[in-house]
Amino acid sequence: MSKVLVTGAAGFIGFHLSLRLLSRGDEVVGLDNLNDYYDPALKRARLEMLKARPGFRHTAAPLEDPASMTTLFAQERFDKVVNLAAQAGVRHSLKNPHAYAQTNLLGFLNVLEGCRHTEVKHLVYASSSSVYGANTRMPFSVHQNVDHPVSLYAATKKSNELMAHAYAHLFGVAATGLRFFTVYGPWGRPDMALFLFTKAILEGRPIDVFNHGRMRRDFTYIDDIVEGVVRVLDHPAAPDPAWSGDDPDSATSYAPYRLYNIGNNQPVELMEYIEALEKALGMTAVKNFLPLQPGDVPATCADVDDLTRDVGFKPQTSVEEGIRRFVAWYRDYYRF
C-alpha cells in the first residue's frame, strides 16, 4: 500500500483515478479547492463519493500557496504524487490568463518543491495534447519538437514539462509527464464537447460544431486513461542510458524523466462522434456549424508506442461503447 497525493481529486480524471487507487488498497489524500470554473455541485458530488470510501481524506490546501503546500508535504510524507490540478480549457485561457499562471505554473512549482524536500518516489503529472500546437505531422509523437503552442494553456503545460526536467536533473525527482488526449466518460467535465452536446440535444437546443465539423480527435475513455495512469505511477521514471546531448530526445533524459502520450490512437471524425451520440440518445441534433475557434487545432492523434512498450497500455473501449456509458450516467444523474 502507498500513500498517494492526488491533486484535483474532485475533478474528472482525479475522481476516477482516486477510486481506482482506493480499490486496490492505497491511501489517497485528495487535494481540491472545488473552484467554480465549472459547476462546483458536480465536484462536490464526486468528492462525497470519495469521502465515503475507506482510505480517502480530503484537503483544501491551496495549491498556489507555498507555505500550505510545504506543510502538507512535510506532515503527510507521500510515497507518490499525481498532479492533475490545473486551470483547464484552451478557450478560457484567452479570457483569464492569470489563472493559468497561478495554478499551472506556481501551483506546479509548489508540487515540485514538495516532492524534492520529502523524497517522493514518483511524480506523475498531467500535460496535454495541446502542447503539439502548430504541429501537423500525425500521429503526434513525444519525440517531436513542441515549441509552437497556439494557446497559453498549452504553453503552461509545456512549461510544466520543462520544470519537471529541471527538478529531475537538479534534485533527482523522478517525474513522468502524461500528454492526455480528449478524455471523456461518466462524471465528465461540463465544458467538454460530449457533455455540452448531450445537454443541448436533450434540451432541444442546437449544438455548436466548430470548424464546420472538420475536426478529428483521439477521444479516450476515462477507464482506459485511469488504467494507463496507474501503470505509469507504478513504473517510476528512470534515466535513459542511451540519451545523448548530441542528438537530444525530448521524451527521455539522462535524468529520471519521461514523457508519454496517453490516448486512444484511433482518431474519430467529429461528425462520427456526434452520430454515435445521436444513436445513444435516440435523438437527432440540430447543428450550428461554426469556424475553428482561436487556440483550437483541427486534429489530434496520439502515438502511444512508448507507453505500450513500457507499461503495456492498450485502450479497450470503443467510442460507441464509451458514449453509451456516458449517456446512461447523464440520464441517471440529471434525471433526463
Write the layout of secondary structure elements.
Elements: E1 3-7, H1 12-23, E2 27-31, H2 40-51, E3 56-59, H3 66-76, E4 80-83, H4 92-95, H5 97-118, E5 122-128, H6 152-171, E6 175-180, E7 183-184, H7 193-202, E8 207-209, E9 216-217, E10 220-221, H8 222-233, E11 257-262, E12 268-269, H9 270-281, E13 287-289, H10 305-311, H11 319-334
Parallel strand pairs: 1-2, 1-4, 2-3, 4-5, 5-6, 6-11, 7-10, 8-13
Antiparallel strand pairs: 9-12
What's this entry about, in short?
The chain is α/β, with parallel strands linked by helices and 336 residues long. Helices cover 41% and strands 15% of the residues. Helix 1 packs across helix 8 (222-233) and helix 7 (193-202) packs across helix 9 (270-281).
Describe this structure in words.
The chain is an alpha/beta fold. It has eleven helices and 13 strands. The chain has helices at 12-23, 40-51, 66-76, 92-95, 97-118, 152-171, 193-202, 222-233, 270-281, 305-311, 319-334, and strands spanning 3-7, 27-31, 56-59, 80-83, 122-128, 175-180, 183-184, 207-209, 216-217, 220-221, 257-262, 268-269, 287-289. A seven-stranded parallel beta sheet has the order 3-2-1-4-5-6-11, with helices on both faces. Helix 2 links the parallel strand 2 (27-31) and strand 3 (56-59). The chain is globular. The model has no long low-confidence stretch (mean pLDDT 95).
